[in-house]
Amino acid sequence: xxxxxxxxxxxxxxxxxxxxxxxxxxxxxxxxxxxxxxxxxxxxxxxxxxxxxxxxxxxxxxxxxxxxxxxxxxxxxxxxxxxxxxxxxxxxxxxxxxxxxxxxxxxxxxxxxxxxxxxxxxx
Length: 123
Description:
CATH superfamily of the largest domain: Winged helix-like DNA-binding domain superfamily/Winged helix DNA-binding domain
Distance between the termini: 31 Å
Order of helices and strands: HHHHHHH
Oligomer: single chain
Helix content: over 70%
CATH architecture of the largest domain: Orthogonal Bundle
Low-confidence stretches: none
CATH topology of the largest domain: Arc Repressor Mutant, subunit A
Number of domains: 2
Largest sheet: none
Number of helices: 7
Strand content: under 5%
Radius of gyration: 22 Å
CATH class of the largest domain: Mainly Alpha
């Protein structure tokens, strides 16, 4: 369940503005504010079934947006690549004593960084 909450929250961050105001409100109340269906229905003056249906329909819409646009997947892939760059830089910093004695080491590591950066820019 936690994975679903996290996934929906991430999808909402990317695609929430594409939803209607009512869909946004219900998703925020349910996922961000952790209100129950009953609490949301009472607050909005609609039936629990209407809240449930809106949540299910909105979840489906969010997953369809991701399937078509893939922004969350692209974001995650970019983050992975940036993390690789950071690890390479940290490794260079950790081994800075090799910079003068093994300049090829630094050149190889810089080539790795350049390759990853180019992958990010191409995608």
